[in-house]
């Protein structure tokens, strides 16, 4: 399973998410979209547009992931180095590995990372 994890500001649009996803180079290989549970509304719009399921993850699910990159803003707000990376990893399940670290949308409103699930 390949999961696209997203982090984004309240000013982000669906176009911001699409741009961040395309920045990863994996837009055509995604099985699941993931983000923080309280941000799921905008991600559902993208989910419907792309025909890919989406999931919202708990604060604990995100905070317990080890991310490759570190954003002070993400750390302050969500207790993780990268919401996008944490969401991708948590969404991909146990033994997940990052394929692409967070990529930032051109408007700087969204980030996207890609993870793949490993054996359970």
Structural overview:
There is one protein chain. The chain is of the alpha/beta class. It has a single domain (2-116), classed as 2-Layer Sandwich (Nucleotidyltransferase, domain 5), CATH 3.30.420. Helix content is 36%, strand content 26%. It has a five-stranded mixed sheet with strand order 3-2-1-5-4. The longest helix has 11 residues, at 40-50. The chain is globular and about 30 Å long. The mean pLDDT is 94.
What is the topology?
Layout: E1 2-8, H1 14-23, E2 32-36, H2 40-50, E3 54-57, H3 59-63, H4 72-78, H5 83-92, E4 97-104, E5 110-116
Parallel strand pairs: 1-2, 2-3
Antiparallel strand pairs: 1-5, 4-5
Give keywords:
120 residues; 5 helices; 5 strands
Going by CATH, the homologous superfamily would be CobE/GbiG C-terminal domain
CATH architecture: 2-Layer Sandwich
The percent range for helix content is 25-40%
β-strand number: 5
Mean pLDDT figure: 94
CATH class categorisation: Alpha Beta
Q: Structurally, how many domains make up the residues?
A: 1
**Main sheet attributes: strand count, strand direction, barrel closure:** 5 strands, mixed
Q: Spatial order of the strands in the main sheet?
A: 3-2-1-5-4
Principal-axis shape equals: globular
| C-alpha Rg (nearest Å) | 12 Å
Number of helices: 5
The computed structural class is alpha/beta
Order of helices and strands: EHEHEHHHEE
Task: Produce a short descriptive summary.
It is built from five helices and five strands, in the order βαβαβαααββ.
């Amino acid at each position: 399973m390949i999961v696209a994890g997203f982090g984004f500001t309240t000013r982000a649009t669906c176009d911001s998410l699409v741009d961040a996803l395309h920045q990863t180079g994996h837009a055509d290989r995604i099985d699941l979209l993931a983000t923080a549970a309280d941000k799921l509304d905008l991600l559902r719009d993208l989910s419907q547009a792309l025909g890919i399921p989406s999931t919202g993850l708990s604060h604990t699910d995100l905070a317990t992931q080890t991310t490759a990159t570190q954003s002070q803003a993400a750390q302050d707000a969500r207790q993780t180095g990268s919401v996008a990376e944490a969401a991708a990893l948590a969404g991909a399940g146990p033994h997940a590995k990052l394929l692409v670290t967070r990529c930032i949308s051109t408007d700087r409103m969204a980030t996207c990372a890609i993870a793949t699930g490993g054996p359970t």
